[in-house]
Known about the structure:
Elements: E1 32-34, E2 44-54, E3 61-71, E4 75-77, H1 79-87, H2 96-111, E5 115-122, E6 133-137, H3 142-152
Antiparallel strand pairs: 1-4, 2-3, 3-5, 5-6
Amino acid sequence: MSRSDNELExxxxxxxxxxxxxxxxxxxxxETFQNKHSENEYLVTFNCPEFTTLCPKTGQPDFGKIVxxxxxxxxxxxxxxxxxxxxxxxxxGDFHEDCVNIIMKDxxxxxxxxxLEVVGIFMxxxxxxxxxxxxxxxxxxxxxxxxxxxxxxxxx
Length: 156
């Protein structure tokens, strides 16, 4: 059940040895491919343990882990394009909460998933860790949106 050239149309970064890493926020890097199992509800998880961005006020680097969970519909994000997209935040100055919401909105716009969540687990700065959580669900997944939001509350 391998993919045809037609099914891989639009996937240009995977296998491309000449890819350049972006220096600025670049949502246009995101690419998708067709979900061959759209009749099934299943979960896809991406873990980016080396996410970096810049503090919008000081320009100091912020380090964190980004976890993306989604239930696909017809389109799925291609992982190399996602890696390059997340790398594009390297010189982007924004608060942690903004980055998580930007990533969520870009991926929802790109794929129109059934459900998607983005979790940020950032290293402490000034003695405080920040763990922003943003999620989206279509009409059929509103209960999941609420349950996952409640589950994300921490009381450590």
